[in-house]
Amino acid sequence: MADDTTAVVWDKALLDYDMGDHPLNPVRIELTMALARELGVLDRPGVQLITPRPATEAELTRVHRADYLDAVRQAPIDPFFLGWGLNTPDNPVFDGMHESSARICGASIAAVEAVWHGAARRAVNVAGGLHHAMPARAAGFCVYNDPAVAIAWLLDHGAQRVAYLDVDVHHGDGVQAVFYNDPRVLTVSLHETPLALFPGTGFCDETGGPGAEGTAVNVPLPPGTGDAGWLRAFHAVVPSVVRAFAPEIIVSQCGADAHRLDPLADLQLSVDGQRAAYIAMRALADELCEGRWVAMGGGGYALVEVVPRAWTHLLAVASGEPLDPGARVPKSWQKFAADRRPGTPVPEMMGDGTPPPQETWSPGTDTDPVDRAILAARLAVFPLHGLDPHDPRD
After folding, report:
1. How many Cα atoms are found within 13 Å in the side-chain-facing hemisphere of 26?
2. Structural domain boundaries enclosing 39
3. Which spans are transmembrane here (predicted)?
4. Enzyme catalytic residues
């Protein structure tokens, strides 16, 4: 394994996944890569830039139905196209939809391939993370499900235990659905409660299908959860189930929309809290699977204020030394961002000035709604892994 190498998968063509006047604006990816470049993250000695190819038909149909692929190709040339979740406000059609979606899947395949074959210890595709797409339906701004396609590639190339960690504010429903009955894939999702937010799934009792019990783990959190509660929930659930599963590789979806400034959801994380989550996921990969970690982007709709900083921290954590949240954002990038999104506030610091507190969960603290959610998640899934839901050491 190339111990000091991080593969960053990038091509400007990934910006072609563009739904027009829509919350999922590719400018957030453009600004992320520009900020990482300005701060020298992409020039670190161990960073290897990889140009992806589009996923093939065979790779896509490991997850998606062939007739759905045909529909995705047809939809942009038929103004009256209906069905398959396409041509809706959430999932408008656009020129080159199949090609750009296949390229994002190809980028995530390139990331897992580099790590699985030992060319890199870690890999990042910030354009990926489209976790809501179903085998025969677009959903939640997602046409093809690149995390699922990439995990299927791993399974086809010999992986027996893949852990998927999803920290997007929305439940990682598409990836969970694809692998719900597959004991080789552990899906773990921390998200805002489905009682309050799309897609309406991700309850604690969704724990995996027959023969795969315990391989779906869900931690639905109440609106208003901030850094302290979110990180307490992460550390009270995620490390234990991932250690019990003993993965060969960890794949993460790192949506930035749990931030307090995100316009589409109601969690209250800071960039500093998101950075702490990335560090924790890298540490798990180092502990359990020789550092093999693939990180993807995902949601995030504070296009200037949050996403570029969060994912620049992600790129830095993946490639070596984490960036100081107290560092100033380069003025050159501030000008670039202001030119690209006139009228949008531009951040001045790489963090939000709120170092996340270090809190641990303990049983009996169920007066707090976050702690009730933690206990519910542990009760649902810990026994399926031979863990004691009431023992904080598990």
Report:
1. 15
2. 6-385
3. none
4. 132
Based on its alpha-carbon atoms, the radius of gyration of the chain, rounded to whole angstroms, reads 19
Q: Diameter of the chain by CA atoms? A: 59
Beta carbons of 143 and 340 less than 8 angstroms apart: no
Place of tokens 């995390």: 147
Tens-digit pLDDT profile for residues 116-175: 999 999 999 999 999 999 999 999 999 999 999 999 999 999 999 999 999 999 999 999
Number of domains comprising the chain: 1
With vertex at residue 42, the alpha carbon angle to CA 128 and CA 7, rounded to the nearest 5 degrees, is: 50
> Distance between the two ends of the chain, CA-based, in angstroms?
31
* Cβ atoms of residues 149 and 109 within 8 Å: yes
Domain-located, residue 394:
no
Asked if 287 and 280 touch (Cβ cutoff 8 Å), the reply is: no
Digit-coded pLDDT (tens) for 41-66: 999 999 999 999 999 999 999 999 99
Q: Which two tokens stand for residue 158?
A: 């010999």
Both tokens of 317, joined, read 């954590």
Assigned token pair, 290: 């020789």
